[in-house]
Amino acid sequence: MNRVNIIKIIWVFIALNGSFSVLFGAWLAHAGQNLEELDKARLIIAHQYQVIHVLALLAVMLAYRIKHSRYLLISAAFYILGLLLFSGSLYLKTYTGIASMGTFAPFGGISLALGWLSLVFLGKKES
Length: 127
What we know:
By secondary structure, this protein is mostly helical. The protein has helices at 3-29, 37-66, 70-96, 105-117. The longest helix has 30 residues, at 37-66.
């Protein structure tokens, strides 16, 4: 798969995640109030991390339009992986009841942190 196709997939991922974040946030504020407290708290955390990191991913990809840096793409990849593993596993754990899904969340958190840390290399000259 070439870089252009990867960029297009990332933009679709951003659009879908942004849209889901808005819709899920609205659902959580209304119908989600009937959930058990532990489930509701887990979903609120997953949703907050999703909103913050889809916006970070959007900022990274907007920056990529200005400066085609591989470090920006690496950051984007970590954010995507982190969103899927962290928020995704918490959503699945809550809705499926499969407790083992939660074991993926720490790897997602690490991926999100690596997304931020990979931005350190933007000042480095690329060859």
